Amino acid sequence: MNIERDVPMGFGMALAQNIDAMEYFSKLSHAQQQAIIDGTHSIQSKSDMQSYVSNMMQKD
């Protein structure tokens, strides 16, 4: 996965602000990463994206 090309900008920015989430995301399989990215498409606000990123590690 090419983060610069495949990750939506808002999601990438939220990941950059949450190092633990970025490390978690980087260790996932491509399929798991894609599932998380797919979940970002309906997010409309910066605060909702930050919450999504903060909570994605708790979905295991």
Itemize the secondary structure elements and their pairings.
Layout: H1 3-6, H2 9-16, H3 19-27, H4 30-40, H5 46-55
Helix pairs in contact: 2-5
| β-strand amount | under 5%
- Multimeric organization: single chain
> From the helix content, strand content and strand pairing, which structural class follows?
mainly alpha
**Strand/helix succession:** HHHHH
Number of strands: 0
Provide an overview of this structure.
This protein is mainly alpha-helical. The chain is 70% helix and 0% strand. It has five helices and no strands. It has helices spanning 3-6, 9-16, 19-27, 30-40, 46-55. Helix 2 (9-16) crosses helix 5 (46-55). The longest helix is centred in the middle third of the chain and has 11 residues, at 30-40. It is globular and about 25 Å long. The N and C termini lie far apart (21 Å). The relative contact order is 0.20.
Protein traits:
60 residues; mainly alpha; 5 helices; 70% helix
TL;DR of this structure?
With 60 residues, the protein is mostly helical.
